[in-house]
Specification:
The chain is α/β, with parallel strands linked by helices and about 200 residues long. Helices cover about 45% and strands about 15% of the residues. It contains 10 helices and 5 strands. The protein has helices spanning about 10-25, 40-45, 65-75, 95-100, 115-125, 130-135, 140-145, 145-155, 160-165, 170-175; strands at about 1-5, 30-35, 55, 85-90, 105-110. Strands 2-1-3-4-5 form a 5-stranded parallel beta sheet, sandwiched between helices.
Length: about 200
C-alpha cells in the first residue's frame, strides 16, 4: 500500500487530486492510502504520524509554502527517502528548477490531466528505491561541493612539482621562498658541476 500526503490549501484541488488517485490504477500492489493537509504547517504536524511514500505539495500556501516544506523533508534523515511531487500554477522555468534543486522529484504544472498526475505519481514512487539506498547518508551535493575549494587553495600554496618530483632533493620552502638567497643544490652524482671537467 502506498501512503500519499496531499498538501494543498484549496479544498477543491485536494478533492480533485484525491479522487484522481483513487480512481486511477497506479500500477502498485494494494490500495492507496491518502491523507490531506490544508497547509504546509498542517503537513509538518501530520508527517510524524505515519510513514509516507509520497508528498504531493502546492507551492503557494499561506503559512509554510511548498518550497519550505520540501527543504525540511530533504534535510531530515527520517523523511529523506520520501518522494516529492510539486503541483502548482507557479510553473516558470525558474520555479521548476528551484523546486527540483531543493529536492522535488517531479514538477507538474496546473492544470493537469488525470493521466499526467498518475504518471508523475508512479515515477515518484519508483524513485523511492534509489533514495532508500542512500537514506541516512549525507546529501551527495555536500560531498561534491566541499572538496574542490580546498583543493584549489592548496594548489596555490603547494605546487605539484615540488611535492611530486623534487620532494627529497629540494624541499618546498627552499624552492619557493629562498630561491634567491639559498645556494643551489649540490650536483647529482655522475654529473659534472659548473667549472668542472666536461663543460664546453
Amino acid at each position: 500500500m502506498a501512503r500519499i500526503l496531499i498538501v494543498e490549501d484549496s479544498p477543491a484541488m485536494r478533492a480533485y487530486v484525491r479522487s484522481t488517485l483513487e480512481d486511477c490504477v497506479l500500477g502498485l500492489a494494494g490500495d492507496v492510502d491518502i491523507v490531506e493537509a490544508m497547509s504546509g504547517f498542517d503537513a509538518l504536524r501530520l508527517l510524524p504520524r505515519g510513514a509516507f511514500d509520497l508528498v504531493i505539495t502546492d507551492i503557494n500556501m499561506p503559512d509554510i509554502n511548498g518550497l519550505e516544506l520540501i527543504r525540511f523533508v530533504r534535510q531530515s534523515d527520517r523523511y529523506r527517502r520520501v518522494g516529492i511531487l510539486i503541483i502548482s500554477t507557479q510553473a516558470t522555468e525558474r520555479d521548476v528548477q528551484r523546486g527540483l534543486r531543493l529536492g522535488a522529484d517531479r514538477f507538474l504544472p496546473k492544470p493537469f490531466t488525470p493521466e499526467a498526475l498518475r504518471d508523475a505519481v508512479i515515477a515518484c514512487l519508483e524513485g523511492r528505491t534509489e533514495r532508500a539506498e542512500v537514506a541516512g547518508m549525507p546529501p551527495p551535493a555536500d560531498a561534491a561541493v566541499t572538496p574542490p575549494p580546498a583543493r584549489r587553495e592548496d594548489a596555490e600554496t603547494a605546487p605539484p612539482p615540488a611535492r611530486r618530483e623534487d620532494a627529497e632533493t629540494a624541499p618546498p620552502p627552499a624552492r619557493r621562498e629562498d630561491a634567491e638567497t639559498a645556494p643551489p643544490p649540490p650536483p647529482r652524482p655522475g654529473r659534472p658541476g659548473p667549472g668542472e671537467g666536461g663543460g664546453r
